[in-house]
Design goal:
Helix content: 10-25%
CATH class of the largest domain: Alpha Beta
Radius of gyration: 19 Å
Largest sheet: 11 strands, mixed
CATH topology of the largest domain: Rossmann fold
Shape: globular
Structural class: alpha/beta
Order of helices and strands: HHEHEHEEHEEEEEHEE
Number of helices: 6
Number of domains: 2
Length: 259
């Protein structure tokens, strides 16, 4: 519910299509959606005519994704670790969208991911993923009290309001960003809280220079670094490919196998 209400997935997929056109030699036909979650991107790409395979480590997420595709064979979904991809197919494009890449916290995780995804890419295929940019982290996140924010989403049909409070703490020595989420579900009719839950996520951040070295060390050619885009529903969003700068928090990286 949360990200479906916060993100215009169709617009984001069209933005990614612009990257396909800019950097791929010929048409993209097959897509591997890594960390696909509930399949929001995968289903949009499938409707656009791509052959899509989605993988995720969460069986619960994949169950939601499969329900949306109950009567279709495209896209297909598998439970799989992004560091140990095992599919008998090679793809024109491999995507790790939004924050999925940041969960690779150790150097060994990165090496295993790059090796695994490379084995499943065609020679001229594109690897596109988003990472959090260390120079774009909000300065307050380095304070002991952290950087605090919130978002509210109303479901008008059920008359429920979801409030998400977040506290972001960043360690510049380790480049690890830890975010505490506290969720509150309010019944607007009864005017009371009907559910609460919390999540903790730790993400690794990078500089663009560091990311270039990582790609080259792991058999990839860095092609471009663009400003990351998460278009909101109902709001106009530019499809232009804008080079990333130091102040951008989200960066979209485009690369391809070197051999």
């Amino acid at each position: 519910m949360i990200y479906h209400e916060l993100v215009d997935y169709e617009t984001h997929c069209h933005y990614l299509e612009n990257i396909f056109r800019m950097h791929h030699r010929g048409p993209i036909k097959s897509i591997l959606d890594i960390g696909c979650g509930t399949g929001n991107h995968a289903h949009v790409f499938a409707k656009m005519g791509y052959q899509v395979t989605g993988i995720d480590a969460s069986e619960e997420m994949l169950e939601f994704a499969r329900r949306k595709a109950r009567r279709h064979t495209n896209p297909q979904f598998y439970r799989m670790d992004m560091r140990k991809i095992d599919i008998d197919e090679k793809f024109d494009a491999a995507l790790v969208l939004f924050a999925g890449f940041g969960y690779l916290l150790k150097d060994a995780d990165l090496r295993n991911f790059f090796s695994s995804v490379k084995r499943h890419m065609k020679k001229a295929g594109l690897l596109i993923y988003e990472f959090w940019h260390d120079t774009g982290v909000h300065p307050d996140a380095s304070d002991p009290s952290g950087y605090k924010g919130w978002v509210g989403i109303e479901d008008k049909k059920s008359k429920h309001l979801l409030i998400r409070l977040d506290k972001n703490r960043y360690d510049a020595q380790t480049n690890l960003d830890t975010i505490n989420f506290d969720f509150y579900v309010l019944d607007l009719k009864k005017k009371k809280v009907v559910d609460t839950f919390s999540e903790i996520h730790t993400m690794r951040t990078y500089s663009i220079t560091q990311m270039k070295h990582l790609l080259e060390e792991n058999g990839f050619i860095p092609l471009a670094f663009y400003q990351g885009r998460i278009p909101a529903p109902g709001k106009a969003s530019s499809q232009a490919l804008t080079p990333a700068n130091r102040s951008d928090f989200r960066v979209t990286c485009v690369a391809r196998p070197s051999t």
